[in-house]
Amino acid sequence: MKKLSARRRHPLAALVVLLLALACTGGLYAVFAPADKAQADETAQSLTIEEGKKLYAVGCASCHGTGGQGTSDGPSLVGVGAAAVDFQVSTGRMPAATSQAAQLPDKPAVYSQAEIDQLAAYIASLGAGPAIPTEEQYGPEGADIAKGGELFRNNCAQCHNFTGKGGALTHGKYAPDLEDVAPKHIYEAMLTGPQNMPSFPDSTLSEQNKKDIIAYLDTVNSSESKSPGGLALGGFGPVSEGLFAWVFGLGALIAVAVWVAARTAKAKKS
Amino acid sequence: MSTTTTPESRSRGKAPAGEKVADWADGRLGIYSLAKANMRKIFPDHWSFMLGEICLYSFIIIILTGVYLTLFFHPSMNEVEYHGSYIPMQGQLMSEAYKSTLDISFDVRGGLLIRQIHHWAALIFLAGMFVHMMRVFFTGAFRKPREINWLFGFLLFVLGMFTGFTGYSLPDDLLSGTGIRFMEGAVLSVPIVGTYLSFFIFGGEFPGDDFIARFFSVHVLLLPGIMLGLVVAHLILVFYHKHTQFAGPGKTNKNVVGMPLLPVYMAKAGGFFFLVFGVLAALSAIATINPIWNIGPYRPDMVSTNAQPDWYMGFSEGLIRVMPGWEINFWGHTLVLGVFIPLLIFPLVLVSIAVYPFIESWVTGDKREHHILDRPRNAPTRTAFGVAWITWYFVLLVGGGNDLWATHFNLSINAITWFVRIGFFVAPVVAFVVTKRICLGLQRRDKEKVLHGRETGIIKRLPHGEFIEVHEPLSQEQLHTLTAHEQYKPLELGPEVDENGVRRKVKMSEKLRAKLSKGYYGGESQIPKPTVEEYKEITSGHGHH
């Protein structure tokens, strides 16, 4: 205590007391005045939007326009929602290398999740659109796998194949393989309909339906899926089976035939 | 053989039990004379002569595994709810046929393995028949007296296609249901009778609830019954005609050089059966085929991409996929040319290879028997036709799998479709020309080898500085093999006027025949094989060249 009393006449003592007092009042204010929390969040959000806007200006504006209004190289982003941004940017489809390709392939993401959230917040601020889904919406709890399979065959298999192995569309476009695609991204794709895919809003496929489909895909088309009959041969059906039968089946049998024919009882030469 | 006991045999005591049984059977079946006539039957040795065996054995395996499957399969379209052991299908509505196939796959002991052997063996059976048929084609083994057996074989291939089609349709899964829908569409496109035929096949509007039971009867009874009869007839004719052989020293049109059926071929063929079974079983244990649990039950309102038939029907899929969607509407009727034209080309593709032997024998006018096989290069026109046909078939297969070509080679499906449309007409012609050139090149090489010997790769320097490569003369056997083939002369039409100066009437068909014959055997279609004089002149000279 001697130390403290010795310094109470220090020129900066008043400042320290003032800071302590401010911290106390501020702390007390924060504890006792939660009603204004929203406003504080809004500040945080407007900061996020600001950050997103900066990222947007650098990475996206050249094609989508300075205010997200779109140009001849990229569509308008007003009203696409945070879900679309999260899907396109975190699967690496955006930023695109070119706008001339038949389709934008998925590739490693360029932005971190924090940056993606900032971009998403900015785009969402341009106009109302679907929000990023929560784990509760796409998680496996309460999902009916069999129902999901039925829904998948009815709504998705036309392009994505029976178990989501992917398929061809016109002019070099394609429906991608869905193996190990994150449940969140599948949900967002259904919600927003990226590229050639139609969108399935909740009025078409309910939240529960989407959950079922995601659970089905997770069962039949992930790197942990079981194939009870052996090698799945890509899961593409009879074309790959026919190729396998010709190359390995008939190939092996002809090799065996050559082997058998080469081993023959030789007539003794006299 | 006689069953009278001679004093000599009595002195040896009682005959062994086996001999007694054989004697008993001979008295009733005459097996001794059958065995005497056939046990020493000679078969030549070549791996390509075993391709037919692959087909025979896989056919037997298909029958055996198929019988097992019928014990558990329910050919019924009654709707049931699934509560078996495959989780992702729990509670789904499906036909009994689909459910029993799921049960075979998951709840019957060994069911999935047997199912997979049955299906893989079917693919191999058809692929084996295709290759076997091509072996017979390219070596000219279809010539007299084997034309009927060629047709039997061809019929087996076509029946095999439809047995396969009716077979993979039985599980009533989404994939095969789409195939049946495809077939229904083709039937409907037939003018006037199409709708009647469709109603007849499905017992009313598609899909109805009859066709699984009907396809089942066709698949397990009708078609296999006919095929079994044809297989037996095919084998009897092989025995009766004796097997063909490649040219070689000591091999003539009147003998067969090889090994006897007993014991050599009995052992080899018996062993080969088990090898084929082993390969098929291993294949079925390693790789899955038609995983119907992934495909789901058939519902007419559903469809998936990658909906293709098994490979042997793939060319018909290609025909449909690349055909422009033409149709003609008149007086309230629609003629769907986009489907009907492929339906007409489908049999044309198959028949064009089946009738070739008859066209060739008409053009050559050759009525003799042939038991010595041709080397493909020595029949350039036939070989070129065969390769052109395979190319045609393959182009259509590409069309049938256009989506997988697109996704796996990063191509546009539209570009592939156009490639197939143009290739359908152009590729066989290109293949024909190229193959013929290659055959002639190989004939020239053979001639060169006969006259100048084999290139040894040894370079010798002569005293005056010239470098030459030493050629080693071929053995007598090799010389014989390379020159044994016969070369035909093109058909001559004869003089335009007869001895009285009257113009002879030449039929159009004769003119065509002469033209084709010139194409077959004219100066540009075969390299004259070296003559004895040429050979002597060259080999008697000093050194080479």
Report what the structure shows.
The complex is a heterodimer of chains A (270) and B (545). Among the domains of chain A are: 42-126, Orthogonal Bundle (Cytochrome Bc1 Complex, Chain D, domain 2); 135-225, Orthogonal Bundle (Cytochrome Bc1 Complex, Chain D, domain 2). The longest helix of chain A has 25 residues, at 238-262. Chain A has 270 residues and is mostly helical. The radius of gyration of chain A is 30 Å and the shape is elongated. In chain A, 53% of the residues lie in helices and 1% in strands. The model of chain A has no long low-confidence stretch (mean pLDDT 88). A two-stranded antiparallel ribbon of chain A has the order 1-2. In chain A, strand 1 and strand 2 (174-175) form a beta hairpin. In chain A, helix 3 (37-59) packs across helix 6, helix 8 (145-155) crosses helix 11 and helix 10 (183-192) crosses helix 11 (207-220). The radius of gyration of chain B is 29 Å and the shape is globular. With 545 residues, chain B is mainly alpha-helical. Chain B has three domains: 7-38, no CATH class; 49-261 and 289-374, Cytochrome Bc1 Complex, Chain C, CATH 1.20.810.10; 380-463 and 519-545, no CATH class. In chain B, strand 6 and strand 7 form a beta hairpin. Mean pLDDT of chain B is 91; it is low at 1-7. In chain B, helix 4 packs across helix 11 and helix 6 (111-138) packs across helix 11 (261-286). Helices cover 60% and strands 6% of the residues of chain B. Chains A and B meet through helix 8, helix 9, strand 1, strand 2 and helix 11 of A and helix 4, helix 6, helix 11, helix 12 and helix 17 of B.
Keywords:
heterodimer, A: 270 residues, mainly alpha, Cytochrome Bc1 Complex, Chain D, domain 2, two-stranded antiparallel sheet, 12 helices, 53% helix, B: 545 residues, Cytochrome Bc1 Complex, Chain C, 21 helices, globular
